[in-house]
Amino acid sequence: MKKTLEQIFKIREHNTTIKKELLAGFTTFITMAYIIFVNPQIMSSTGMDQGAIFVGTCLAAAIACFVMGLIANWPIGLAPGMGLNAFFTYTVVGEMGYSWEIALGAVFIAGILFFIMSITRLRGWMITSIPLNLRIAMGAGVGLFIGLIGLKNGGIIISNEATILSLGNFKQMETLLAAVGFLIISIFSVRKIPGAIIIGILITTLLAMSLGLVQFNGLLSYPPDISPVFLKLDIFGALNIGMLTVIMSFLFVNLFDTTGTLVGVATRANLIDDNAESKGLDNALKADSSASIFGTFFGCSPVTSYVESSAGVEAGGRTGLTAIVVGALFIFAMFLSPLAAIIPAYATSGALIYVAILMLGGMEKLNWSSTVELLPALVIIVMIPLSFSIADGIALGFLTYVSLKLATGQIRNISSGAWFLTLIFISKFIFL
């Protein structure tokens, strides 16, 4: 067994051991396992079967991790991404009125485009042609979007006719538990305890159980039936002009987020180095983009690389064996459906808020010295949550960017990628 693992993953070459890789895989899984509870809750709001989504989330994540481990040999865990699952649910299905089957079709098309870009020079062209500030803003805006949903689900922020929004009632136990859950996650994270998010969710659920708000129905069982969502995507339904901006939003948010995550984690693992850098990153991007494609077969929004993989890297993970362990644990997690079924929305709201705050950290890399570069980025960051749409927020940001460049006589500084996306967004507002 050791010889086989050595041949496949080149463990000695990466200055690690099988024991370290196993520990790293477990660490990474614990830090990202919250998605098996959060994703089904979010996407079930579309009318999708929650039990089926739970299984789909585990399977999509497991296969994606296996692909990453075997093709790229990188210690990266993958699962349906936060932010785009909310966009899928609340904007594409909830606000725009598309069926979840058509929305899955849009994710599939975006995944195909992502894969094509990963095997051609289009990826490099698009990444370099989109201004850095706008790329950073997309991540921060999605973070605020997630945070708003978490605050709403937990009852911490409620609607108010007079003020639009107002603070919720903390005398309501559900709202109080949502806030407590966030504090637990924050405290555990500050103290650098692995799996702070999943621990916070479970503790909040236990508190709710002790108060009689939820009932324990067991821990293990056979996985629920996945057939209600399996292979239900409607690709042809997504092939209409109205879905173009949706597809573009899925594509570019996933592209920039994935690239940033892979480079960041790989750097910490010392995998980015001289000429090996390009090949390793290319294989990792191919694995990630293919994961978004087959994830739709299991009823999932875009599958992406998780920055939480850095926890596994800190634990010693250096090869794809780490990713394989993460995938195996996702397979085991399918048998935890009774636990997933009892976790209330307010128990996961703290996780959403915490993840949102972390995503805002990228704002420190914004170019604050140039108003022309800064204002469009801030428009994206503010308008994504306020419009409750990733697509609309990005569109308004690009329109602002091009307008300011033209007004200041900097037309030559507008990249082809920026022109391309701006024209798409203009068409959306004019014709749709």
Q: Any idea how many domains?
A: 1
The count of strands amounts to 4
Mean pLDDT across all amino acids: 88
Order of strands in the sheet with most strands: 1-4
Which spans of ≥5 residues are poorly predicted at pLDDT below 50? 274-278
Radius of gyration from CA coordinates: 21 Å
Shape: globular
Instruction: Enumerate how many helices there are, as a single number.
Output: 20
Beta-strand percentage?
under 5%
Estimate percent helicity.
55-70%
Q: Structural class given helices, strands, pairing?
A: mainly alpha
Describe the structure.
The protein is mostly helical and about 425 residues long. It is built from 20 helices and four strands. A hairpin with a 3-residue loop joins β2 and β3 (about 165). α8 runs antiparallel to α17 and α9 (about 175-190) runs antiparallel to α10 (about 195-210). The protein starts with a helix and ends with a helix.
Task: Output the keywords.
single chain; two-stranded antiparallel sheet
Task: Please write out the topology.
Layout lengths: L1 H8 L8 H15 L2 H9 L6 H23 L5 E3 L3 H12 L4 H19 L3 H8 L2 H22 L3 E4 L3 E4 L5 H18 L5 H15 L24 H4 L5 H25 L7 H20 L7 E3 L3 H6 L5 H14 L3 H6 L2 H15 L11 H17 L2 H18 L8 H16 L1
Antiparallel strand pairs: 1-4, 2-3
Helix pairs in contact: 2-15, 3-4, 4-13, 4-15, 6-12, 6-13, 8-17, 8-18, 8-19, 9-10, 9-17, 10-17, 12-13, 18-19, 19-20
Compact summary:
The chain has about 425 residues and is mainly α. Helix content is about 65%, strand content about 5%.
